[in-house]
Design a protein that fits this description.
heterodimer; A: 471 residues; alpha/beta; 16-stranded parallel sheet; two-stranded parallel sheet; 16% strand; globular; B: 153 residues; mainly alpha; 80% helix
Chain lengths: 471, 153
């Protein structure tokens, strides 16, 4: 047996012994509960220790950059490192979609997040889902008033153990929202795509759900008075908004109301390709805890970039077409930024300015959500010792091979997120096998007909040492 | 200290009490000069390691004990490991409340992954991953704090 795995196991045992002493617990019980160090499993040990080593490396890198005081302020939660989170702030949308009670019965017991396609669902499907023990998240997707009338709302209101609930494009009554107020665990509520109209009555019902942390109201008609009432939610952390079709909301008035939700840390806003006024963004300066802002499908210019709150650590920008190198140079001065995403392809004339911005910022995450970053940009990313996550969205005709080869050069990378239209081969993905730190590869299909077989997925997973997720 | 040391060396938890007892029996049989706590600790660890090595027959198993002993000396420069323990207490205090809750429920109250997952809305595998990350973060924090203490001294 090689020395280093033995030494690493000894270090782990040392920590276990110290934790047992600190918490005054018995080592034998600790091992029996599986809370001790990892057991040795022959040839699997090397892989396990590799993962552990990578994890330790992140921690060390983090602690090099952040002192104890920052850690005490809750900026890093080992339970939930920010770079592991998916893009959607409210839900990890599951692929489990059911329309019949039989499909529900056939699901493995471990499935805790279920989507019901409400319009096509047979009678009894939602009830069958609600009878499952351990259900954590339920999404009801699509339906008009007639479909909504068939939803067993009273049964649903009785399912008070749910953590996440969503009604997408399905009309929901304010009275029914009031019945959610006693739920003790409800943290995420998604009511987008016209499911509600946020008037005073609906907002009052929502404001009574005191446990809410994430609220998705994208593409709902919003009244500033309704948004103001959401300030009564004591733990609201994330808010998702989107401009509904054929409407021209007063963004400044809406953001002024949002700015009263002082607990807010993340705001996601999808636009209608109209300009995002700088004065609307200035309203957000009152949100002292705001660290994440996503603006998609808006036009922004240098003035809007300058108006962004200084507290931001995570920023996702829409098209850069209205931005100049001067605006990007201003962005590069925001040393608090550690995550930057571009929603649309980076214009060629701005490539050098974006690369310079990336080089100057201590970015831990960079995403180019539509298109492959340029060679110049990849070179800057590869030179970053703190880069943890890269996300790339590929078009239908773009092969992922180039992404994998470039990602191999980013030696500190932990998570690689690729949105693609065609499935890579194990040989293509296998380029990443030798990556020293990569622990997770997320492949998100953009074409619904691209569904790998179990054998194909197994071959992909066997081709690399990192975990491979397929969404 | 002796229990921690023996566990690091690879002793099974159900053998540690016996080994500690045997160690003290040997120590009592010896006539020791009073050269301070550090010397006494070093002597006790030496006896404990010797007793453990007697239980290890293969050369490979004995080598593992030696390597683990090296790790102890690298990690516990004060010999007793008490500085590390103090650093761990400090680092646990710096963790976010939810992380501290996971540690308390898991290590102090004996909650299993299933139960803990139910309380926190995570799968048992998620709890396992979270514990792994917590341990990694604590290890890093301890090392950083000890480095800082050395630099300041």
């Amino acid at each position: 047996m090689k020395d280093e795995p033995v030494r690493d196991l000894a270090r782990e045992r040392l920590l276990s012994a110290e934790l047992a002493e600190l918490f005054d617990t018995d080592l034998a019980q600790l091992e029996a509960r599986g809370a001790g160090p990892q057991r040795r499993h022959g040839p699997w040990l090397a892989a396990a220790l590799l993962c552990l080593g990578a994890t330790v490396a992140f921690g060390v890198a983090w602690l090099r950059r952040h002192d104890d005081a920052a850690a005490a302020q809750g900026k890093f939660d080992p339970l939930d490192p920010w770079w592991e989170q998916e893009r959607h702030p409210t839900f990890r949308v599951p692929e489990v979609v059911v329309t019949t009670p039989e499909q529900v019965a056939a699901l493995p017991a471990a499935v805790a997040r279920i989507t019901v396609s409400t319009r096509e669902a047979q009678d009894g499907t939602i009830e069958a889902v609600l009878r499952r023990s351990g259900l954590r998240q339920l999404l009801l997707v699509h339906g008009d008033a007639q479909v909504a009338a068939r939803v067993p709302w009273p049964s649903l209101a009785a399912q008070s153990s749910l953590h996440s609930l969503g009604c997408y494009a399905l009309p929901v009554a304010a009275d029914w929202l009031r019945s959610l107020q006693p739920w003790p665990e409800l943290r995420s509520l998604a009511l987008p795509n016209g499911s509600i109209r946020l008037d005073a009555a609906t907002a009052t019902a929502l404001a009574g759900i005191r446990t809410l942390r994430h609220l998705d109201l994208a593409y709902d008609e919003l009244e500033p008075e309704g948004l103001l009432r959401l300030a009564a939610l004591p733990e609201l952390d994330t808010l998702v908004l989107g401009v509904p079709p054929r409407q021209q909301p007063d963004l400044r008035a809406n953001f002024a109301a949002v700015a009263q939700i002082r607990s807010l840390r993340a705001l996601f806003c999808d636009g209608d390709f109209e300009p995002m006024p700088a004065e609307a963004l200035r309203e957000l300066h009152r949100l002292e805890r705001l660290v994440a802002l996503q603006l998609t499908n808006f036009q922004v210019d240098d003035e809007a970039l300058e108006a962004l709150p200084r507290t931001l650590e995570h920023l996702a920008l829409p098209t850069l077409a209205g931005v100049t190198a001067r605006g990007l140079a201003g962005l590069a001065e925001r040393s608090a930024l550690r995550s930057l995403a571009c929603h649309l392809p980076i214009p060629a004339e701005l490539d050098a300015a974006v690369a310079a911005t990336v080089a100057k910022l201590p970015l831990e995450c960079f995403e180019c959500r539509s298109g492959m970053p340029s060679a110049r940009l990849w070179a800057e990313l590869a030179g970053s010792p703190v880069l943890r996550r890269v996300g790339v969205g590929l078009g239908r005709d773009e092969l992922p091979t180039a992404v994998f080869e470039r990602a191999l050069g980013c030696r500190s990378l932990v998570v690689l997120w690729v949105s693609l239209a065609t499935l890579p081969t194990p040989q293509q993905l296998g380029v990443l096998r030798e990556h020293p730190a990569l622990r997770r590869i997320v492949l998100r299909r953009t074409a619904p007909d691209v569904v790998p077989t179990a054998a194909e997925l197994a071959a992909l997973r066997a081709s690399v040492r990192a975990e491979v997720e397929f969404l | 200290m002796l229990r921690r040391y023996l566990y690091v060396l690879g002793a099974r938890p159900d053998r540690i009490d016996d080994l500690v007892q045997d160690t003290f029996v040997v120590a009592l049989q010896k006539t020791l000069e009073d050269r301070g706590a550090a010397a006494a600790g070093a002597f006790l660890r030496g006896v404990a390691k010797h007793l453990l090595l007697r239980e290890r027959r293969s050369a490979a198993a004995r080598r593992e004990v030696e390597l683990a002993d090296q790790v102890w000396h690298e990690q516990c420069a004060d010999g007793s490991g008490d500085q590390r323990l103090a650093a761990l207490r400090h680092c646990v205090g710096l963790l976010p409340e939810r992380s501290q809750q996971v540690l308390r429920r898991c290590y102090a109250e004996g909650a299993g992954r299933q139960a803990l997952g139910g309380e926190l809305g995570m799968t048992p595998d998620g709890i396992k991953t979270a514990l792994r990350r917590l341990r990694a973060a604590l290890r890093s924090c301890i090392e950083q704090r000890l480095r800082r203490e050395v630099a300041e001294s």
